Amino acid sequence: MTGAEARSRLAALGLEPAQVDVLVAHFEDADRRGKTGHGLLRVEWLEGQAIDPLARAVLVESGEGYEHWDAHGALGYLVLDEIVRATLADPPERARVVVASRCFPTGVLGYWARRLADGGLVAALTATSPRRLAHPDGGPALAGTNPLAIAVPSGDGEPVVTDVSMGAVTHGDVLAGRGSAEELVPFGGEQSYKAFALAVGLELFVGALAGPEHGVVLVVARPDHDPVPALRELAAGRRLPGADV
Amino acid sequence: MTGAEARSRLAALGLEPAQVDVLVAHFEDADRRGKTGHGLLRVEWLEGQAIDPLARAVLVESGEGYEHWDAHGALGYLVLDEIVRATLADPPERARVVVASRCFPTGVLGYWARRLADGGLVAALTATSPRRLAHPDGGPALAGTNPLAIAVPSGDGEPVVTDVSMGAVTHGDVLAGRGSAEELVPFGGEQSYKAFALAVGLELFVGALAGPEHGVVLVVARPDHDPVPALRELAAGRRLPGADV
Lengths: 245, 245
Prior knowledge:
Chain A has eight helices and nine strands. In chain A, α1 crosses α2 and α4 packs parallel to α5.
């Protein structure tokens, strides 16, 4: 699918041009980084979802160190774009925890975290999604793949962005034909109980703050130090996670 | 080693009785939960470290949503105990990011997070430690095993506490003879690049806030929801991470 085709099909869902821009920029970045499961193929997936193009996120509580957004069913991509822009426009003096309720789908979390780091902020971002990971002992799915993205800016230019899903494959991989639903298990093989525990911890952390529907928690802060150049030097040319492709 | 022997040996290091109590309570809890690498055997390990029993952590910056402690080389166990007690005595209205610089060793992070959850707070806690994990492609160690502990209180009694180190084994396992230094690699086998990315992300996140020496970042918040009972019901008796042993 081309960007132009994506634009016209997203517009046909009732989205405004500025909203379409946000989605296409995210999808094209995902494709460029090889995360095709979160790329333009999601346009077709969105056509099968119940979308309310008129839904708008509301900032229901706002303080220096805490913000709570209710996405009201607006597309998670749009809500995260709004949170990123609002945070860059009014960054915390020190640190802020930002919670978004009823916020789905959120796409590549590293994409949003990277934008915050490009603006000079440190960001840790997690989000819940449909329960797909079962207990290593079996049974029903108990937790989403619940990625954790961390982005840290650097004086030497590019931020380091890590973005790890707790699934051996992601639902996006399944959509992209690069993994099967049977592989939707916690990553780690014999030690998959560790990725399962991370998924459960993040699931409950987000749930305790954002409520029973899918939600987002972002921790954003001003860095006091610049640890990236020393790590890059130590890595001696080895590719660090999230290095630009 | 018995608790009594541990007490007398810790006192011989110059620690005060109240400090000894903090350490022994942590070590005995670790042993009780099977984390013997962080248990009483650490007394002997501490005897080989350069300890300043007179060092005291200083709260250098304090706000509703952000706190920064400089541990000044005080034992990390003691600093985290002080942070936990201070946080329970004056919890955030909503959320707070607590940073501790020069804070090592910190022991079982789930122990501190659990105490916050026992007091009704949601906690996510991470800490850096000596670099022991190399890039999956090889080379020098780039990141500590950098555990992430998450504790969420529950209306049905026991909190859920997850506590995951990014190493296939921990340095504590090596000390306890339950793992070899060669196994100090990111967990996950073929997907160890994921645990490595988590370790690097947490390393830089803590480094950006706490500085170049080992540090701690705690995100603590008041829960708005109680997601644990529904998860327990869904798990239908399967043991959730961190269930009391």
